[in-house]
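Hey,

Quick one before I head out. I ran the complex with guanosine-5'-diphosphate overnight. Inputs first:
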Amino acid sequence: PNSKAGDGKPRLLLMGQRRSGKSSISSVVFHKLPPSETLYIETTTRIKKESMHSFMDFQVWDFPGHLDYFDPAFDVDNIFEEIGALIWVIDAQDEYLEAIMRLNMTILNLQNSYPNINVEVFVHKVDGLSEDYKSDTFRDIIQRVQDELSDNGYENAPVSFYQTSIYDHSIFEAFSKVIQKLIPQLPTLEALLNSLCSTCHIEKAYLFDIMSKIYIATDTSPTDIGSYEICSDYIDVVIDVSEIYGWDRPAENGHSEIAETGNNDAESLITMERKGNNYLYLREINKYLALICLMGDDSPAEKKAVIDYNVGVFQAALKQVFPRAERDVPQTTSEE
Ligand code: GDP
């Protein structure tokens, strides 16, 4: 029997005040909207549940305003029981004291009832700030949250902070770190990637969620942002994501989309090419994930057979780690 779609996926909830950037983040990361076009999108005005063809599940909420989540009529438990991380977006270009107050209130509440939910604070829109102002603001926000936590005896609450912007890769990097904490198999994945890298002389290997371009694991060698960018851009070059996943097109009949497109073993996409001084290798692993490897000039394309073989081994191992991703039935986007 198939498990229900969405089961076992990391679940995220995005919260923050009106205009803090929630819709923009969601559109840029999960719908590939160019950042400049977020100027014209509708701000979040209600709870939006988005289920997408991704390794993770994701919901966006507007924080109070018109909706008070401490309202007993509102089924908080139902939601918080399901999520692994609460991403709290703070607009760093705006007055943030009110936002911090609400964030602190929320963290204290969560510590009472759901102490295992990670609270991930995105200090957002930092692209508009000078370096000095940016780091002062970041420090100030961390301080204000930590003071409140220790005043209440919660020194070790799982709260982390990131500086993000939709105008660069920082939002993807932050999401990657958030997601990786929610993947219990991460140590196994890292070990598999490490072994692949050393066997095939690969410099850096990423396991990407194709649709969002968030990486869910990488080998444990030091990551520099440049290699993430190169690999993430390569997905766009190689995979026409919208073609494969068709997430923008609502299903017209019961059995939506091209669920089985090109993602079974026989047809999985494999490609390798030269990019500047590097070689890039991409292979679709299952319908959500692709492996992308970055190799130096000293790894000539003739090695491709060796890499193909070892990546095949990796892919087989991964099937044991994520049996569910092979079976999942894609969902359509829903909103309530
Ligand atoms: P929401 O109400 O939280 O959903 O906020 P929106 O997504 O509607 O964003 C409000 C405004 O912030 C929009 O005009 C966005 O273009 C802008 N915005 C969102 N993210 C960023 C960012 O990273 N940098 C900058 N400079 N502006 C952003």
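The radius of gyration is 21 Å.

Talk tomorrow,
K.
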